[in-house]
Amino acid sequence: MTTPTTSPAAASGKAPKGRAPSSPLPTGRPRGGRSRIRRQLPVSPWLFAAPGLLVAGAFSLYPFLSTVANSFTDRRTLLPGRFVGLDNYREMLGDEMFWIGLRNSTLYVLGVVPALVVLPLLLALLVEKQIPGITFFRSAFYTPVVASIVVVGLIWVWLLDERGLVNSVLEVVGAGPVGFLSDQWLLLLSAMTVTVWKGLGYYMIIYLAALGNVPRELHEAASVDGAGPVRRFLTVTLPAVRSTMVLVAALSSVAAFKVFSEVYLMAGPGGGPAGEDTTLVMLVQRTGTGLSGRVGYSAAISVVVFAVTVALMLLVLRADRKEDA
Amino acid sequence: MSRREGRAERPGAGVAAPDRRRNRVTGRRSGRRMPGWEIVLRYVALLAVLALTVGPFLWQLSTSLKGPHEDIFASPPAFLPEQPTFDNYVRVAETIPVWDYALNSLTVAVVNVVANCTGAALAGYALARLRYRGRRAATLAFILAMLVPVEGIIIALFTTMRGLGLNDTLAGVVLPLSVSALNVLLMRNAFLNLPYEVEEAAFVDGANVWQRFARIALPSVKGTLAVVAILAFMGAWDDFLWPLIVLSDPQNFTLTIGLNYLHGTFADDERLVAAGTIIAVLPLIVLFACLQRYFFRGVGEGAVKG
């Protein structure tokens, strides 16, 4: 491989530092892990991890802690704020906008998750077989995932416009123009459709990996026993991808509850007619930004978003364990 | 892609890969042929899904090419432009500095790729291969960081950035993404899957930790590194919520924010918005089409290994 830089490096490398045994070879009692390579310079491992740890600390963990801390203050964008206890949370309970946001984010989970658990699996089954051109189809189905959410949002705004493609096709059929983007509920439904459309390819790939791991002997044994394709799907494929379905359910429900861009782009910053389509993260963004942004109150809503996503995750994983028993 | 994985010549990746030979045409794992009607049915379904997933992009492309005197609201809709023109692309550049925005996006994306590949590889190696006090704590820190949803900390992130004096700068856009915890853990898994023997041999030969990392370990995880690079590029190029919050001066906008601005301000001409979106999405589609082989293989490996 490389020409060994002999004595100096080796000497410093093998200098017994504290408890670290000097030999890299198995010494009889491998402590802890598989690694038999001992440290050389006590400082270098931290040099390796330092950039990553700095970013993770400064831009994930610290903002998280400060969000929780801010939620107990009346901090504003340009004012430091003081401790107000649970006032923000109390105010939230009486805030109509908060309940609208909670309702919409919850509806989003209920609408999007079942579709994203089932449809990508069907899609994965469709592209699983190695037939000519399948690689092209796989990548093409992935295009919506690659595209920016802004591009996707603007494309669909144009498609669903009062005079857009979908409505002109509907008019040819004889159905009048449908206000996909003006009716409160249709707007939410349209945004969900866009989320599902954009997510199909992503989850398809996850399922595809899982399907590749189904032992072919099981399929063969089942067909020898005379099981048709549907039967084989139910008895062989489905149990094999069940844990993947749970994973997809967990990932997509957490993502759906935190929905921002789709609704923001389709409904506008104000959240559609009378703000009725506002989601919780839209509310976080709207209340927390600007010169008079209520950082404290916005942080309290964020804490609710954290709590619900953690709860959703636990709920899905728990449902999985129950079925196992 | 699991089929490709079997053939992948990646050290470590093929170690546990079971035999995955399949019939080249039918794709059956055993030798049976797929009946003709099933093949036809499959292609019909594939084409239908193709129309659904790619159709909207083509419609947008078509709109962006339609001339100023064409009725873009016609019913029944016309799919091909009658007087195809690139004029809309010129006009969108006159309306907003779309090429400056594209350059901003490109800068952010490229810096993000370099930072993520470097930072995640270094940290991943430290987590997987080095022993030191606090390694578990470091791993835990990355796992926690990965679990923190960016949507929930966005305002605190904004105030942190303001404290650093980086609001409304491209550095402020790129920094929070610059070493994603997910990428660190991906790299960690890749390094964990490498056999130890080669590194041990190098150790015996006196290679120090940097040499082992740079010359032995890193070249062996190119596949995962490629995935990290693609994810980093797409993530930065496509990001919307964070740039929307951190950027305020239109001069510094990235393409996604610029497009939203274009849409909000000049929504009356759908041709312009369409041209803008095509400018934003085309480079990514081309990039992805070129790299999809590595991407699907790498993602498949990651998913298989858990």
TrEMBL record, chain B:
Stated membrane topology is:
Multi-pass membrane protein
In terms of superkingdom, the source organism counts as Bacteria
Swiss-Prot/TrEMBL keywords: Cell membrane, Membrane, Transmembrane, Transmembrane helix, Transport
Its BP terms in the Gene Ontology are: transmembrane transport
Listed PROSITE patterns: ABC_TM1
The protein, known as: ABC transporter permease
Q: Does the keyword Transmembrane apply?
A: yes
The UniProt entry, under Gene3D superfamilies, shows:
MetI-like
Question: Where in or outside the cell is it found?
Answer: Cell membrane
A single Gene Ontology CC term: plasma membrane
Which species is this UniProt entry from? Streptomyces tirandamycinicus
Under InterPro entries, the record lists: MetI-like, MetI-like_sf
* Basic and acidic residues bias locations: 1-10
Q: Where is the ABC transmembrane type-1 domain?
A: 102-291
Q: Which Pfam families match?
A: BPD_transp_1
CDD domains per UniProt: TM_PBP2
The UniProt regions of compositional bias labelled Basic residues, in chain numbering, are 21-30
What family, per the record?
A: Belongs to the binding-protein-dependent transport system permease family.
Q: Where is this region: Disordered?
A: 1-30
Q: Any stretches that span the bilayer, and where are they?
A: 39-59, 106-128, 140-158, 170-187, 216-237, 272-291
